[in-house]
Amino acid sequence: MVAVADQLFKALADPTRRTILDELTEKSGQTLFEICSRLSMRHRLGISRQAVSQHLAVLESAGLVETRREGRYKFHDLNTAPLRHIAERWPLPDASGPEGNTP
Amino acid sequence: MVAVADQLFKALADPTRRTILDELTEKSGQTLFEICSRLSMRHRLGISRQAVSQHLAVLESAGLVETRREGRYKFHDLNTAPLRHIAERWPLPDASGPEGNTP
DNA sequence: ATGATAGGCAAGTAACCACTTGCTTGTCGA
DNA sequence: TCGACAAGCAAGTGGTTACTTGCCTATCAT
Question: Where does the record place the HTH arsR-type domain (chains A, B) (predicted)?
């Protein structure tokens, strides 16, 4: 459906959200507060907790982030699977060899 | 640079622009008017010529569309190379298995 | 229980973006 | 040269969105 791609690309459109994805790529399973502090420490992003929370909601609706709750903690895990949708939609020019296979 | 990715993802954020990319995937080297008529015919998109022109400008600044001028015609060619940037930034889970999740 | 910690909900605001409208430039055929 | 066609430029507008502010809920340690 179009709606899925719509959420996906809209989620990727914001630089802060992309930075969050970077952060989760490096360390998956972070809590909201952990993401907040790392964004401000490592990326010098002065951003409120609520803003990050809203960004995470957008990423989750796009399927790029999955969450699991444990007690009062909520862990956020990265899921890059939806990105495959992009590569399948517009085929890349031949790079050097077949892709999707790590030798 | 961040600015390049910024233009790229912003360009992909709009559904009309993605449809234009689809159209150019199918037939590269179209003029502005050709793209307009095909958008309205094949995709039922009632959109003005200027709107398409602005979309093409965004796509071009993102490097997804390249143009060449011949007389009074300006042809638009698709270039999916910038999309490789996405796959490199967030590595996809292994495609061999049905569901990829690192244990 | 009480205070502290982790997170959620909702409304308001300022900036951004897609689209339109109107006019202008440049190129080709008659 | 004149008219028609392809495209460019610029300002204005309505809707979207990122962010803040303020308050509320839930879980845990003491």
Answer: 1-101
